Amino acid sequence: MASHHHDRDDLTGEHRLGDAGQLILALLFALVWLTDSFLLHWTTFLNREIAVFLRVPLGTFLLMLSTYLAWTSIRIVFGEVREQPAVIRQGVFNLVRHPMYLSEILLYLGLLLLSLSLAATFVWLLAIIFLHFISRHEEKLLLERFGNEYARYLHEVPMWIPGWHRSG
Q1: Which of 8, 31, 53, 131 could link 101 by a cystine bridge, Cβ 3.0 to 4.6 Å?
Q2: Under 8 Å CB-to-CB from 100, ≥6 apart: which residues?
Q3: Which long-range contacts link 155-164 to residues 24+ away (Cβ below 8 Å)?
Q4: For the chain, how many structural domains are there in total?
């Protein structure tokens, strides 16, 4: 996706390792989750403890929510060129500041619920740390570009969890 950014003055940019890091983590997650869940079963013992009828509907719901967040946030960011660059606050961007990255976190979590792999859970936690790191970097770029308008957005819209506001 990074290639689309270079010719768009209305987009602020992302961490230079963002796309590569996300791709590496996605491939690592897929490799570990698929291998552990369907071939070697090293760390999937919790599948015997937690009922399928609890895991599968919740996992499926998270996969659908992930798809919705990804689809709507990509459509909002890349669907139109803004003549006047501004802080994007419409739709899912009014609920959380990083809906695209949140969709990635929920995708992994949905898959983890379908097959509880502790090894893949470790990769998921690495992905969360990485996405938080690149999100903070992008927020610095947005603060530099939009100043008080973005500072207000930081204060009014939570980073990851809708309705979760910092005190103070």
Answers
A1: 131
A2: 69, 70, 73, 74, 77
A3: 157/89, 157/93, 157/94, 157/95, 157/96, 157/97, 158/96, 158/97, 159/96, 159/97, 159/98, 159/135, 160/96, 160/97, 160/98, 160/102, 160/105, 161/96, 162/95, 162/96
A4: 1
Q: What is the pLDDT of residues 117-166, one digit of tens each?
A: 999 999 999 999 999 999 999 999 999 999 999 999 999 999 999 988 75
With a CB cutoff of 8 Å and minimum separation 6, the contacts of 139 are 97, 150, 154
**Cβ-contact 28, 115 below 8 angstroms:** no
* Helix spans in 6-162 (H): 18-35, 52-78, 99-114, 118-146, 148-156
Residue type, 166: R
Q: Does residue 118 sit within a domain? A: yes
Q: What is the residue range of 65's domain?
A: 17-156
pLDDT exceeds 50 at position 3: no
Percentage with pLDDT > 90 across the chain: 84
- Token pair of 29 as six digits: 């997650």
Q: Whose structure tokens read 């490799």?
A: 31
Do 36 and 42 form a contact (C-beta atoms < 8 A)?
Answer: yes
Which residue type occupies 88? I
Question: Is 90 part of any domain?
Answer: yes
Q: Is the pTM of this model over 0.90?
A: yes
